[in-house]
Amino acid sequence: VDPRQGKRYQGIVALDGVDLSESLSNYFVMSEQLGTRFWLKADGHRARGLLLQQLPAAEITDPEERDANWEHVITLASTLTAEEMLSLDNPTILHRLYHEDPVRLFDIQPICFRCSCSRERSANALVSLGLEDAQQLVIEHNGSIEIDCQFCNERYLFDATDVAQLFAGGGVDSPSDTRH
């Protein structure tokens, strides 16, 4: 993880669980220390999911009450059938499950994939190698280094001029004029 302030860190969490929803739930418990449950359903044409996360301790300070509330919402969510999840809209599902509890619906936010890769982040990876190693990579790869994002498949090219500019403190605003 590359935090905005502070030192970089990496956490490794085992991928445990009999299915994806259990693996994701375990990840949040182990990595984020946040009670989380997922219910995922699909029928070949549609896929839907339900995510529940435990409220912060500031909301409910009594640990026993907090645990009881968490078990309550999980128990109710576990009664949701695949057919209900795939065919009903969110307000209806929430009303059926939690009509006796206070429920707050937030505005719908569309989900879309956005990769956070950039030329600058790729350049930072090169800088972390050091000047000598970066120059050696340029030589070994016929005059340019290709860095491919493993998430979105964007490709960033850096030639000898780009590498020299990086280590001279020139930044990476745009690629050099060299045709790649």
TrEMBL record:
Lineage: Bacteria, Pseudomonadati, Pseudomonadota, Gammaproteobacteria, Pseudomonadales
GO-annotated molecular function: protein folding chaperone; unfolded protein binding
InterPro entries, alphabetized: Heat_shock_Hsp33 (IPR000397), Heat_shock_Hsp33_C (IPR016154), Heat_shock_Hsp33_N (IPR016153), Hsp33_helix_hairpin_bin_dom_sf (IPR023212)
Keyword Chaperone applies: yes
Transmembrane residue ranges: none
One Pfam family this sequence matches: HSP33
GO cellular component, one term: cytoplasm
Protein name per UniProt: 33 kDa chaperonin
Swiss-Prot/TrEMBL keywords: Chaperone, Cytoplasm, Disulfide bond, Redox-active center, Zinc
Gene3D superfamilies recorded: helix hairpin bin, Hsp33 domain, HSP33 redox switch-like
Record PANTHER family: 33 KDA CHAPERONIN
GO process annotations (BP): protein refolding
